[in-house]
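Q: what sequence does this backbone want?
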């Protein structure tokens, strides 16, 4: 079953004595705007800078491995297994909200995402801000294009001292021009962190100062 919210896959039960169970992982990931610097230790790769995408591709990989293992071992006994690959989790769990969960036969399952003891869950998520900025330049008057202004602004964003735990990324950059010589550039930026909004506000103000 596929929708814009993701994919729900199902393995039929090999033994009806076992209950139906679902597993969930989201297939989208995020970035903190930094290039990963890979470190390898005992065959495992990590990065102290950019994200490698284990959130939550690690969970999706576990689900795919389980499917492959069970299909390769048809004698293994299990109930109906349902696998939910959701999208757009990093922007407010939009994918999960679009999925038709009424098609599930499982009444309980496991989300392969957040850390912690099995059976626990998180009571809060990260604060997520979407910032829209528009730059309008009259090239006939200023002789400086809006694109060049935007490039300068994005370069100055590197001077903002974001904490390592905060993700920040320019998600959209596009421009238009009209016959009168006016140029418009639209920039969309995202900030996200596991901290209260009031703790993010100082960094938001730094970003605003770069633009204004």
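A:
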């Amino acid at each position: 079953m596929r929708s814009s919210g993701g994919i729900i896959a199902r393995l039929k039960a090999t033994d009806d004595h076992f209950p139906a169970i679902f597993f969930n992982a989201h297939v989208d990931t995020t970035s903190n705007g930094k290039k990963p610097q890979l470190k390898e230790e005992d065959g495992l790769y990590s990065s102290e800078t950019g994200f490698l995408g284990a959130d939550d591709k690690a969970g999706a990989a576990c689900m795919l491995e389980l499917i492959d293992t069970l299909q390769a071992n048809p004698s293994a006994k299990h109930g109906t297994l349902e696998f939910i690959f959701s999208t757009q989790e990093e922007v407010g769990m939009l994918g999960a909200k679009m999925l038709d969960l009424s098609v599930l036969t499982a009444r309980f399952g496991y989300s392969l995402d957040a850390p912690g003891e099995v059976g626990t869950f998180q009571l809060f998520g990260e604060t997520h801000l979407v910032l829209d900025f528009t730059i309008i330049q009259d090239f006939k008057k200023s002789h400086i294009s809006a694109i060049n202004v935007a490039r300068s602004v994005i370069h100055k964003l590197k001077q903002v001292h974001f904490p390592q735990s905060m993700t920040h990324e320019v998600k959209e950059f596009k421009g238009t021009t009209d016959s009168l010589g006016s140029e418009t550039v639209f920039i969309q930026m995202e900030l996200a962190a596991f901290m209260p909004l009031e703790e993010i506000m100082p960094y938001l103000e730094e970003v605003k100062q770069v633009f204004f």
